[in-house]
Amino acid sequence: MSTSNKQFQLRTVSFQIEKKPILQDVSLTLEGQKIYALIGASGAGKTTLLQLLAGLKQPTNGTLQFGNQTPKEIVISLVPQEYGLLPWQTARQAVLAGRKISRQQGITPTDQAFVSQLFEKMQLTAVADKYPNQLSGGQKQRVAITRGLASQSELLLMDEPFSALDAFTRETAQQLFLDSWHEAPRLTVFVTHDIEEALLLAHEVIVLESNPGRVKQIITSPFQEKQQLADERQSELLFQTTRLLRKEIEG
Ligand SMILES: Nc1ncnc2c1ncn2[C@@H]1O[C@H](COP(=O)(O)OP(=O)(O)OP(=O)(O)O)[C@@H](O)[C@H]1O
């Protein structure tokens, strides 16, 4: 896949619903090979901003450009909050469809093997041929994450991707996400309510304030290498930075 250095430029982006400002004057430069976390109070506009990046919503004012293209012109992988699984696709079909959408050619045996490996790592092999109504919430979320990881788009967007997972599964899925990301770095933006998750997974944490949603601050995570999370989870540095960021969000 292409490892793009294109920037995503947002210039004074505002979004209103029935004249109510939801986002106001959001200007951001997102680097092509970084992971960004969007964090902020409930209702601050995180999902709305993700949908603008995905081209699912149009700004009331301002512009969004990825390289010289608009969001609607690029292939994007979106892991939505409600998982976005189609009732007539099995887990495996959904993930293979996600992989195929970003490719010129069809699915090859190598793709099949790659996807089977991902299912194994995500502990989904036993449910690979099941339909969404046969899966638990956590399993659906893991299928949605797996589809995002298997896709080869230039841009990966995820809305609270790990929120429905129990602690152990979440840690496995987070590490798998980082491992996949390192194999093929691409611009990734995810929404989270979890400050530790934001610091551990993202290079930059974008803090949104509410009413209307604006960028309050962008904080560079002290964890830039992001290889093995297990040690960093226990670190004093994580404890301290989490405290600081919490004050920033609440203050
Ligand atoms: N269809 C809609 N009609 C009216 N208001 C809406 C609509 N969709 C979103 N909003 C409002 O826009 C604001 C931002 O919503 P959004 O879902 O983007 O916030 P969020 O930060 O993702 O919240 P959460 O953390 O609770 O998921 C909220 O005040 C919400 O009530």
Automatic annotation (TrEMBL):
PROSITE patterns: ABC_TRANSPORTER_2. GO terms for molecular function: ATP binding; ATP hydrolysis activity. It comes from the Bacteria. Gene3D superfamilies: P-loop containing nucleotide triphosphate hydrolases. Keywords: ATP-binding, Nucleotide-binding, Transport. This is ABC transporter domain-containing protein. PANTHER family: ABC TRANSPORTER ATP-BINDING PROTEIN, TAURINE IMPORT ATP-BINDING PROTEIN-RELATED. SUPFAM superfamilies: P-loop containing nucleoside triphosphate hydrolases. Residues 8-235 form the ABC transporter domain. Signal peptide: none annotated.
